[in-house]
Amino acid sequence: MTMPSRTPFRLGLPAVGVIAGVAALSGCAPGDRGEPRTEVVHASWAFDIRDPEVVAGRMDDIFIGKVVSAGDVESDDPMPKATFTVEVASSIKGDEKGTIDVVQEGGFDESENAVYTFEGDRLLEVGKTYFFASRGAKHQLLPITGDRLLDEEGEASKVTATYEAAVG
């Protein structure tokens, strides 16, 4: 299977087999418009996305914010990209404030009747607060660790302290 040259990750042969097997067993063929199937994409990274110091060095903006609305989903090959509007609560790196748009790889691809996510990641939810790490003017989020849900009491202050130390 040949992937486009701009692909930021590679699907391993076992993952393709598992995805194909799940689609066949569930009866979700591309023309079937029943429940959307879920496609989990496995990736290998050029850097350690779980190391706060590495993430702080690689990302342009690091901040805490609340998702206030979901926007368009661009059906981009090989994976859709979803836009969300975020109210920035605090900026750890960069000078973001107010309301900004962020782009998350993943989302619902209507033409494929499928929801795509990275392994270990989940789609952003309106009304929830997250830690964000992004790059570029479009605020492309780092999958998995750059869109971390902060759902426990005091978690935002712990994450902020960790990344403030990493930014230096």
Which characteristics define this entry?
168 residues, alpha+beta, OB fold (Dihydrolipoamide Acetyltransferase, E2P), 6-stranded antiparallel sheet, 3-stranded mixed sheet, 9 strands, 20% helix, globular
Provide structural commentary.
The model is unreliable at 1-31 (pLDDT under 50). β3 and β4 (98-105) form a beta hairpin. This protein has helices at residues 13-26, 52-58, 155-167; strands at residues 37-41, 61-74, 81-93, 98-105, 107-109, 114-118, 129-135, 140-141, 147-149. The termini are far apart. The protein is globular and about 50 Å long. It is 20% helix and 36% strand. The strands form two sheets. Strands 2, 3, 4, 7, 8 and 9 form a six-stranded antiparallel beta sheet that branches.
Strand residue percentage: 35-45%
Helical fraction equals: 10-25%
Shape: globular
CATH topology: OB fold (Dihydrolipoamide Acetyltransferase, E2P)
The domain tally reads 1
Structural class: alpha+beta
The average pLDDT score comes to 82
Please report the distance between the alpha carbons of the first and last residues: 43 Å
Rg for CA atoms? 17 Å
Write the topology of this structure.
Blueprint (H helix, E strand, L loop, with lengths): L12 H14 L10 E5 L10 H7 L2 E14 L6 E13 L4 E8 L1 E3 L4 E5 L10 E7 L4 E2 L5 E3 L5 H13 L1
Parallel strand pairs: 1-6
Antiparallel strand pairs: 2-3, 2-7, 3-4, 5-6, 7-8, 7-9
Task: Please summarize what this structure is.
The protein is of the alpha+beta class.
